[in-house]
Design a protein that fits this description.
Radius of gyration: 23 Å
Number of helices: 5
CATH topology of the largest domain: Immunoglobulin-like
Number of domains: 2
Number of strands: 21
Length: 322
C-alpha cells in the first residue's frame, strides 16, 4: 500500500492546481473542495459513487486490498490524530420480503479533529470502500453527529450495498475545510467489516465441500478440508480450530506449506475476490464428535488493528461420523 507521500500536501496541491483547466478553477471557487472539482467526493448521506480507479490495477486486482491506492491515499496524509475509525458501527437492513432483506446500510463511526478557522462549507468526512463484485473503489460521505468530551467530533458515514457479499474493506478520509486532507487506512492494511454480521455471514469464510474429502471414522479424522475465503489482503492469518468435546477444549492448526499435514496452505484463486485454502488432516484417535471452524484474521502486519472472521461461528461446523 502507499504510505506518506514523498511531497508535502502543499506541493501536491500546487501541482494539481497547475493542471486544472479554467473551467475547473472556476468550479473550485464556487463548488467546494478540490476533491469535489475532480469528481472524487460522493453524495452526502444518501449514497455512494464510484471513485476513479486505475484501469490496469482494476484488471490485475486479485484481492480487495492488493495495493490499489484510492484518491484519499494519493492526495492526503496518513494521520490518525486528525481522522480515525474507532471500531464502532451498526447496521440497518432494508427491503424485507419473502427471501429476507435485499439491502443493508452499515453506519461507520469516525473520530475527527476540528481545525480552528476552517470553512465548514468545504469540510467533508467519509470513507473509500472496496466491495466484493465491484473492482472499483467507492466513495461515501458522512454527516456530523456530536461533539466528543475531548473536543473531537463524531461523524457517521452510511455505506449501502445490495450485493451484501461477505466483507468490505475501507479507508477513512477527512477534508478539514482549511486545505488539509487526512486519512486513516489502518497503516496500509485497510479496515474490514462484515455486511451481514458473523451469524449471517456465509461468504467471507465458508467450506468448499466440492473440494473436501475428509472423513470422521472410528479411528480418527483424515483427508482434506477446503475453504473459500474472501481475499481481503495478501497478508493474512488463518487457523483451524477443532474440538472433540463440544469446545470444552480446543486444538489449533496454523499455516504451513503445501503437502504439510495438519497445516493450512493456499491452494488456488477462485475468481478475483476469493481464494481456496486447504488442510490435509491426520488426527488419529477414538472420540465421539468432531467440530471445527476456520478463523481468518485481517490486519496482521505493519502495526495495523486486526479483525477476525470465523467460518462456522462460535459453534463451528459439525462433521458426521461414518
Amino acid at each position: 500500500m502507499s504510505h506518506r507521500p514523498s511531497s508535502t500536501f502543499a506541493e501536491s496541491l500546487e501541482s494539481t492546481l497547475s493542471r486544472l483547466t479554467e473551467r475547473q478553477r472556476g468550479l473550485l471557487a464556487t463548488t467546494g473542495t478540490l476533491a469535489s472539482v475532480l469528481g472524487f467526493t460522493g453524495p452526502a448521506l444518501t449514497g455512494c459513487d464510484p471513485a476513479p480507479a486505475d484501469d490496469a490495477a482494476a484488471r490485475a486486482q486479485e484481492v480487495l486490498a492488493n495495493g490499489q491506492t484510492d484518491w484519499a491515499q494519493r492526495m492526503g496524509v496518513r494521520e490518525r490524530n486528525m481522522v480515525r475509525y474507532y471500531r464502532e458501527f451498526w447496521r440497518e437492513f432494508s427491503g424485507s420480503g419473502r427471501y429476507g432483506y435485499s439491502g443493508v446500510t452499515v453506519f461507520i463511526k469516525l473520530r475527527v479533529q476540528p481545525v480552528v478557522g476552517a470553512d465548514l462549507a468545504y469540510k467533508k468526512v467519509g470513507v473509500v470502500l472496496r466491495e466484493v463484485g465491484n473492482p472499483n473503489p467507492v466513495t461515501a460521505t458522512g454527516y456530523y453527529f456530536a461533539r466528543m468530551p475531548d473536543g473531537a467530533e463524531e461523524w457517521h458515514v452510511p455505506v449501502t450495498s445490495r450485493l451484501r457479499q461477505g466483507t468490505f474493506t475501507f479507508n477513512a478520509w477527512y477534508e478539514d475545510g482549511k486545505y488539509g486532507r487526512w486519512y486513516d487506512d489502518n497503516n496500509g492494511e485497510l479496515y474490514a467489516i462484515s455486511w451481514n454480521g458473523e451469524s449471517s455471514d456465509f461468504v467471507t469464510v465458508r467450506p468448499d465441500f466440492a473440494a473436501s474429502n475428509a472423513k470422521f471414522t472410528a479411528t480418527g479424522v483424515s483427508g482434506r478440508l477446503a475453504f473459500s475465503v474472501i481475499d481481503l489482503d495478501y497478508d493474512k492469518d488463518l487457523r483451524l480450530e477443532w474440538s472433540t468435546d463440544d469446545w470444552k477444549t480446543t486444538t489449533v492448526f496454523g499455516m504451513g506449506s503445501p503437502g504439510d499435514k495438519n497445516k493450512l496452505s493456499w491452494d488456488s484463486n477462485q475468481g478475483t475476490d476469493f481464494d481456496r485454502w486447504v488442510i490435509d488432516l491426520d488426527i488419529p484417535g477414538s472420540f465421539a464428535n468432531f467440530r471445527y471452524r476456520l478463523v481468518y484474521k485481517h490486519g496482521v502486519v505493519a502495526g495495523a488493528e486486526s479483525v477476525e472472521f470465523v467460518g462456522g461461528g462460535p459453534s463451528g461446523y459439525w462433521m458426521p461420523k461414518t
